[in-house]
Write a structure and sequence with these properties.
CATH architecture of the largest domain: 3-Layer(aba) Sandwich
Largest sheet: 6 strands, antiparallel
Distance between the termini: 19 Å
Bound molecules: flavin-adenine dinucleotide
CATH superfamily of the largest domain: Nucleotide-binding domain of ferredoxin-NADP reductase (FNR) module
Strand content: 25-35%
CATH topology of the largest domain: Rossmann fold
Strand order of the largest sheet: 4-3-6-1-2-5
Number of strands: 11
Structural class: alpha/beta
Shape: globular
CATH class of the largest domain: Alpha Beta
Number of domains: 2
């Protein structure tokens, strides 16, 4: 990794049973485009020591970014982050990377995420709110998880949906017996949106299976490459 910055962990917050948010100092905190990620070069025994994480907060002049990271069973990178890293730890962090950014904000937008795949969308939504006070384009977030306690930033999304008419939140749970909201997998919940309006731009983020399936389904409905952007986490 070229010229990494040594960045201090400022705070760590448990967001769900398996996900932690790391707020870290970052000199380029106002010099990235929402949707981009950083790479951490970790002191781990592995062939490849870098791991990528989407920035989950909007650019700011306060000198920090937030990452939300799920612990992967048996994964050396997250084992290190969850067992060795505390407030004050210095991490080696790359400059902002990636092209998963908003390109056409004149069209309605549908974000589709599972788990920590919601991170880049939080940065994009926060940035839009910061610039305009309220969302300047209709945004739907279709967010898939297993259980209610896995819904990252749940309150933030609910509050925004209650106050901003441009924001629609569709939390979909696959395994929660007590859930009275949308159930199953994300696909059955964004398809009606896609079928009703072919001007949508879809942004997909998370693990390969969900993203590939969604991309194929939307392509077969006639959505063009320009209308489909995706970021794979594995
Ligand atoms: C663009 C991007 C953004 C991401 N954002 C997030 C996020 O916001 N939150 C989150 O929880 N996770 C995110 N991930 C996943 C994250 O980078 C790690 O894969 C995850 O934390 C698991 O790491 P691990 O070491 O615990 O597990 P492991 O399964 O051991 O690590 C898998 C990772 O190791 C590296 N690796 C292993 N073998 C090779 C190889 N042959 N060649 C190159 N690299 C290799 C790769 O980075 C691979 O993804 C993102 C991934 C990408 C690509």
């Amino acid at each position: 990794m070229d010229n990494p910055l040594a960045c201090k962990v400022l705070s760590i917050q448990q967001l769900s049973p398996t996900v932690r948010q790391f707020r870290i100092s970052y000199a380029w905190s106002d010099q990235f485009i929402p949707g981009q990620f950083v790479m951490l070069d970790l002191p781990i025994e592995a062939k490849f020591t870098t791991r990528s994480y989407s920035i989950a907060s909007a650019p700011n002049s306060e000198g920090w970014i937030e990452l939300c990271i799920v612990q992967k069973p048996g994964g050396p990178g997250t084992a290190f982050l969850f067992s060795q890293v505390t407030e004050g730890t210095l991490l080696q962090v790359s400059e902002p990377q990636g092209k998963f950014v908003l390109t056409d904000t004149d069209s309605p937008i549908c974000f589709i995420a599972t788990g920590t795949g919601v991170a880049p969308f939080r940065a994009m939504i926060q940035e839009n709110l910061k610039k305009n006070g309220a969302l300047d384009t209709p945004i739907t977030l279709v967010f898939g998880n297993r259980f209610a306690h896995d819904i990252l930033y749940h309150e933030e999304w609910e509050n925004l949906a209650a106050t901003d008419p441009n924001f629609t939140f569709i939390p979909v749970l696959s395994r929660d017996e007590n859930w009275e909201g949308p159930r199953g997998y994300v696909h059955e919940h964004y398809l009606p949106i896609a079928e009703a309006n072919n001007t949508y731009h879809f942004y997909l983020c998370g693990w390969t299976n969900m993203v590939r399936e969604a991309k194929n389904k939307l392509k077969s409905l006639g959505f063009s490459r320009k209308q489909l952007k995706f970021e794979l986490y594995d």
